[in-house]
Amino acid sequence: MRVAIADKPFSADSMLAQFADSRTGAAGALASFVGYCRDVSDAGDVHQLQLDHYPGLTEAEITRLANTIIERHGLIDLLVVHRVGVVTPNEPIVLVAALSSHRAQAFAAVAELMDYLKTDAPFWKREAGSGGERWIEPTDADRARRAALGE
Amino acid sequence: MRVAIADKPFSADSMLAQFADSRTGAAGALASFVGYCRDVSDAGDVHQLQLDHYPGLTEAEITRLANTIIERHGLIDLLVVHRVGVVTPNEPIVLVAALSSHRAQAFAAVAELMDYLKTDAPFWKREAGSGGERWIEPTDADRARRAALGE
Amino acid sequence: MTRILFFGRMSEAAGCSELDAELPSELRTVAALRSWLADRDAALKQLILSPGIRAAVDRGFCGDDASIVGAQEIAFMSPLSGG
Amino acid sequence: MTRILFFGRMSEAAGCSELDAELPSELRTVAALRSWLADRDAALKQLILSPGIRAAVDRGFCGDDASIVGAQEIAFMSPLSGG
């Protein structure tokens, strides 16, 4: 399992390729997700996102969430990379990838970990764009998905 | 949208990277899945898989399924690559990737397209290994997932 | 002559993946062709009558009522399994 | 001296992302600290008493009953939002 906080732009392609290369022969399924900074939001054009975290707490909390997911789905391996700092459109913000024997476990793991990240990982996002500046907080849909995960 | 049948080993990493590079700024979510040939199955060690298809029908049928999924989830783009021929352990068999504005659509699209491929795409798999040779047909779980998709 | 293709487990039962046959002109549907093939070849009989074996006429999936009149290629396929 | 950190929208209300404070010794819980900060700063008051603002003591999430006695770093965080 690997959890990384990236304070500069990272290549989701090459980190995913590296993760895929590390797999063993029993791993039949690799599911992954990349979240990119969009150039539009419901507030208009987006110029940048400022992503803050709480050094020391953030990595520990993601690691805890990642371990929960590995155990729940019996994963072979899990990768989480999350950007902090100033992010501009088209840059990746988050990469999550899961390796398992069969596909159902890998799919569920990636979707659930993304749900956790939206509401339980110590990050704060501020969007700056044509509509001014605003904090981005979890949506009702994010909270509903998180609630469905229980615990 | 791109559908490809590969009769030789393909690089899932580079095809996925190319698909990711083609995205526009409104695409905030990229979900993907790679299915690899495992080196073990419930029958023992796996030496190879023979994947047959029906040229002319297979590509048309996958394209039809892909269009169903694009429409159902309002995707920005969709990629499907499927191997045929003799496949050895660790080689990718299938790559599915979906681009959408937000994550829920991309996740659902990739999972559902994989469910369709397991039961509705004209491929036939024969496994050869320490347990002899056998045809691999959809499991009860595959059929149940497909039935849940309706239509 | 009509080309008949067999896929998956079906090809094993048929002992070949394709054959060219001169079909009697009274064979007008997929269902009739299934019966004709079953009568002709005992090994085929087990599978060809099973509803799990899908048919395609000239590269389009179709049901047992579909016409095979004038068809050039008819396929019988054991359960599909991609991915 | 105790370091108090503010994250997200909370930092905007506080007008800073951190401050060092000499806390009165009778402040023994997170809840008491919230009230003390609210009384001290009207701008903070709106948010710091909200249940949506999570607290961490020495880099561990905790509830309002948690002790802050001897704590070196206490954080108040508006809703988390990664991904």
Q: Strand-residue fraction of chain C?
A: 25-35%
Q: What is the total tally of β strands of chain C?
A: 5
Number of helices of chain C: 3
Structural class, judged by helices and strands of chain C?
A: alpha+beta
Strand order of the main beta sheet of chain C, please? 2-1-5-3-4
Count of runs of 4 or more consecutive helical residues of chain A: 4
Straight-line distance between termini of chain A: 22 Å
- First and last CA, distance of chain C: 35 Å
Which spans of chain A of ≥5 residues are poorly predicted at pLDDT below 50? none
* Percent of sequence in beta strands of chain A: 35-45%
Question: How would you sum up the major sheet of chain C?
Answer: 5 strands, mixed
Average predicted local confidence, pLDDT of chain A: 96
Q: What's the alpha carbon Rg of chain C, rounded to whole Å?
A: 12 Å
Number of strands of chain A: 9
Largest interface: A-B, 33 and 33 residues
SSE blueprint and pairings:
The complex is a heterotetramer, with two copies of chain A (151 residues) and two copies of chain C (83 residues).
Chain A lengths: L1 E5 L5 H10 L7 E8 L3 E2 L2 E10 L4 H16 L3 E7 L1 E3 L4 E9 L2 H18 L2 E7 L2 E5 L3 H9 L3
Parallel strand pairs in A: 1-5
Antiparallel strand pairs in A: 2-7, 3-4, 4-6, 4-8, 5-7, 8-9
Helix pairs in contact in A: 2-3, 3-4
Chain C lengths: L1 E6 L1 H6 L3 E4 L8 H11 L1 H7 L5 E4 L2 E3 L10 E5 L6
Parallel strand pairs in C: 1-5
Antiparallel strand pairs in C: 1-2, 3-4, 3-5
Helix pairs in contact in C: 2-3
What's this model, at a glance?
The complex is a heterotetramer, with 2 copies of chain A (151 residues) and 2 copies of chain C (83 residues). Chain A is α+β, with helices and mostly antiparallel strands and 151 residues long.
